[in-house]
Amino acid sequence: MLENQMREIGESAKKASYVLAGISTEVKNQALQAMARALEERVEMIIDANRQDMDDGRAKGLSDALLDRLLLTPERVKGMAEGLRELIGLPDPVGEVSNMRTRPNGLRVGKMRVPLGVIGIIYEARPNVTVDAAGLCLKAGNAVVMRGGSEALNSNMALANVISAAATSAGIPEGAIQLVPTTDREAANMMMTMNEYIDVLIPRGGTGLIKVVTAHATVPVLQTGVGNCHTYVEEDADLDAALKIVVNAKTQRPGVCNALETLLVHDKVAQEFLPMAADALQEKGVELRGCPRTQEIIRDCTPAAEDDWGTEYLDTVMAVKVVKDIEEAISHIQSYGTKHSEAIITNSYKKASLFVQRVDAAAVFVNASTRFTDGNQFGLGAEIGISTQKLHARGPMGLEELTSSKFIVLGDGHVRS
Amino acid sequence: MLENQMREIGESAKKASYVLAGISTEVKNQALQAMARALEERVEMIIDANRQDMDDGRAKGLSDALLDRLLLTPERVKGMAEGLRELIGLPDPVGEVSNMRTRPNGLRVGKMRVPLGVIGIIYEARPNVTVDAAGLCLKAGNAVVMRGGSEALNSNMALANVISAAATSAGIPEGAIQLVPTTDREAANMMMTMNEYIDVLIPRGGTGLIKVVTAHATVPVLQTGVGNCHTYVEEDADLDAALKIVVNAKTQRPGVCNALETLLVHDKVAQEFLPMAADALQEKGVELRGCPRTQEIIRDCTPAAEDDWGTEYLDTVMAVKVVKDIEEAISHIQSYGTKHSEAIITNSYKKASLFVQRVDAAAVFVNASTRFTDGNQFGLGAEIGISTQKLHARGPMGLEELTSSKFIVLGDGHVRS
Fold it and tell me: Which of A335, A408, B237, B338 is 20 to 30 A (C-alpha) from B172?
């Protein structure tokens, strides 16, 4: 029965995607506007549905942090509506033709940007993903099939019903925005192998979710990212700037994937820099876990275990290691990093170039905080996540990353000899 | 034991990939030259090894077609060497920085093209893939781990040994070009899940191989393509041009993925066009399998069964269907096509635009033969295959498609507020 239900969802999404691919920017923008308005008009109904999830969550003993993620308020719903309106202003990536060139035989060959088709999103707690993802997928001309966390089912259903009805009323085909209306785990498993209907799968959530999806999906996956991010302070760094950057990267918002997790410091400046850094960070409540050399220099520093180097704390904890040179820093990052965001603080042109060339990550920074890894900060507009894989998209994924291309070949009776 | 061997291969490839990412174009080109020269110098040894595969193949009763694919001659080895030399002239994609823009806060954000890392290739009969794939991967700065067909093991080993020794002598790190030296099927299975060591997997071969890899791989896959290609002749087509294009697409080389498999003809010109087409094609030995309407119009036409619409014949057989309009043609292509190469023959601007917009395929043609879907023909230089998936690369994949990118972010003490 679930199988039939999922097949129907897949079929109608696929069907909708064919129509969506040809729908004008104007209609898509009108739909985004209608969706935003509908969210505002139906805010009470949405919050009622959310209340049920919150009650269930409390009864199940969800943590306060999780309950806060789940909670919808009039302001949060308003925020989702505004997110949709922001998409209206972004350029439509679909239909752009690039690299159109005439071959020696007169054949004209170029690339046209097209939607991916049907995008599957498997996500956890936050109900705002329902609206954000639907909006981004729609603007890029894709149909979307979403499967949210079971704790948020009522909220997600309410949101999805409101926006999908609004989109349809504005001329978007039915089936373009769908939420899988069940908490059955099997539904997510089915999505992972619905190659016939789903073109790309984007898991959004913790490491566990991403691992399961990567391991089981036969549908191509866009992995979004775990970030064990490093900042390396070179011997010639401006230490005041380094201090500001390190404190910002670690404490401005510790619970996100682009926050700093391990500080690497050149041995020659460790004696001067580490006490400054420790004071500033400990004042902000950051617990430091250091290598033996770090422990010699700063007090109140827990010894770092091997595990610390590989941990994404997502919390006010930071590992600290003194390294003898940039080579050791790069090799540490290669061994323990997750290829998300890595930074060097240096005034040396040569060291900056070396770091940028050699460090293999979605975003490599010179003299800036890793916290900037973000679609808006990078100028892409809204993002659907930060890819840490190398295929298709790397780093923040905006509207362009939700598209593919096709070659268009214009001839005049051309045959191959 | 095999597991240890595969881990060693993976580890040394990964290690080599880190060095390769920073190697200059000059060194890579010198290595390609050395590899080409070594192939020419060691041609006898290579052909001796191939003789063993040919003897084994005959003993096993391989078909003549398969034996011909397996066969190496001095000319074929020379051809491989020339293929390597052609890569020298192509621009090195690695290191290109694009879209470098200054954000309102002064942060400079751009994208740098970087190698993918380690590419795994799983392929069937043709030993030339060993050389072609190694050359392309090397020029794009990637290490490669290759697993060829068991029938070609001796030939592949000889080729891989020659080119990898030549590459190393020219300054390429050991481990950059490796062939899995066993016919154990388990080795291919292991490659599919070596996520730690292999960044991307490219299966090259028939539908069976591609299906197995797509279903079992946890490593991201670049699918190369099955092509059930169509050509649709509109009512306003120039029928002489249409005839030339159809004959070329079907007969110029029937055994390849961009050859025409199903001809669609508008009802209004079927009576005039089909007899012309049948004469020309049957003269070239093509067997026609037609819909009922086609059978009324042309003689010597086998009835097409439902299966014929979905078959990639790769042979001198063609299915023929009369459709009532462009909508029926597009919907037939949507139902039965494999999203490879699709063509329309028309003089109508409107119909051409509609077809280009609506048909979802790696390459969409107007008034030209589908046989042009090819890296060289499209101006990309050599290709590693034709992708029929939508993620990362679609259509012929050249050097650029063997790379990824990273964001580079240049600041001046920037912190996020």
Answer: A335
